[in-house]
Amino acid sequence: MVDVVLPDFMSVRSFQAAKRIVYGAKAIDRTGLEAKQLGLKNGLIVTDKTIEKTGLVEETRKSLENEGLKIDIFNKVEPEPRLDVADLVAETARGASYDFVVGVGGGSALDMAKVASIAMTNPDPIRQYLGLNKVKKDGVPKILIPTTAGTGSEVTNIAVVTLVDDEIKSGIVSPQLFADVVIVDPMTTITMPPKTTAGTGIDALSHAIEAIMSIQASPITDVLALEAVSRIGKSLRIAYYQGDNLKARYDMSLAALMAGLAFGSAGVAGGHAAAYAYSVKYDIAHGVSCGIALPHIMRYNMPVCEEKLVLIAKALDEETAGLPVREAACKAVTAVERLIQEVSLPTSLKSLGVPKADVATLAADMLKSERLLARQVRKITMDDAIELMKRICGE
After folding, report:
1. CA-CA distances (angstroms) from residue 222 to 156, 279, 383?
2. For residues 395 and 389, what is the distance between their CA atoms, to the nearest angstrom?
């Protein structure tokens, strides 16, 4: 092979995802058939009590039992699950001879289903698996069914856990966490209230935009992420104000899936690092936390990724023809800010009562997310982090 210096766009990239994805209206009815085709017999549904009340868990159970499968239910998942919840999930999963797991719910339930899967084949405390590639053995097969349009957890290899004492989130990141089957049914999202619709939708938008700005982005992830941005731009407002609008719900479910596929390989970066610094400390929902940080990290990255921000502006139907590149790139930021405001989400930490005296601490906590910040297209020093946090706080 000829020894030449190659341009950045030819550098090696990889793309990874779940083994099988099934999507469309009433796709949840195929759960039993999908499990049977894998030769499975005895499963555990991992969910939370709120989702259980919607009837979706019972619908999933019936689909599985109609195919002759035996099913138990674990319904003690909580939002932003703590490490002790992950340990309880693991203990439950290890206490019976399950040969598969079904996650039904938002990102928290799906993440805990991943934990249940690997716990049955990996005996150590869950804390031992936090970090990159620390899971040694494949888990039992898992089927993941999202009921929100946001986290993308159904197609990623990450399970996020809240470390309460450290006031920060951590994650298990390993290929063993990829689902065997993903079932995306937009009909399951119709019961989401407006506030959840907004928060999860902006979470998906953060995934897509941060994946586009990541140094690990590729032509494959960019195509998926830009399509996700476009669908969110067109449909999130409608889904927020008209929850029963099937086209909007379909677009949002598909957008969350695409954004998940994009950041599952390209990763997220500075925006999520900032959000993790304050979401646990102040008990702010993940999507809200990401939405507050997103416009600021876009502005911070702009000097080194103007052209990508122009693509984002175009995906959001902003008029960019004839404009200088910087001006066109700025339209992406203002469009994102406008969308966040129009779905009634907070735009600063100040509005949530976070004191500006905490800026330095939050900046230091942001820099602890080294895995995320390694993907930053523009590096962040302590001084940079302090300035970012001042803006995020609303000074």
Report:
1. 16, 27, 30
2. 9
Q: What is the dihedral of CA 301, 372, 364, 170, to 10 degrees?
A: 150
Question: Can you give the C-alpha Rg of the chain in angstroms?
Answer: 20
List the one residue out of 378, 154, 152 whose CA is nearest residue 287.
Answer: 152
pLDDT at position 164, please?
87
Distance CA 167, CA 184 (A): 32
At residue 351, the pLDDT reads 93
Residues whose CB is less than 8 angstroms from the CB of residue 307 and which lie 6 or more positions away in sequence, other chains included: 325, 329
Mean pLDDT by 10-residue block, N- to C-terminus, for the chain (395 residues)? 67 88 96 97 97 96 97 96 96 95 97 98 96 96 97 95 88 96 97 96 98 96 98 98 97 98 96 95 95 98 97 98 97 98 96 93 95 96 97 90
**In terms of CATH architecture, what is 194-393?**
Up-down Bundle (1.20)
Q: Residue 9: what pLDDT?
A: 72
For domain 21-189, give the fold: Rossmann fold (3.40.50)
Instruction: Give Dmax over CA atoms of the chain in angstroms.
Output: 64
CATH 1.20.1090.10 domain span(s) along the chain: 194-393
Q: Where in the chain is the domain with CATH 3.40.50.1970?
A: 21-189
Instruction: Report the alpha-carbon distance of residue 121 to residue 136 in Å, rounded.
Output: 9
CA distance 370 to 277: 12
SS3 of residue 146 by DSSP: strand
Beta bridge pairs of residue 22: 183
Beta carbons within 10 angstroms of residue 164's beta carbon: 12
State both tokens at 141.
């097969």
Q: Are 270 and 376 in contact (CB under 8 A)?
A: yes
Closest CA to 129 of 93, 103, 160, 156: 160
Which residues are paired to 70 by β-bridges?
42
The three-point CA angle 227-311-324 to 5° equals: 160
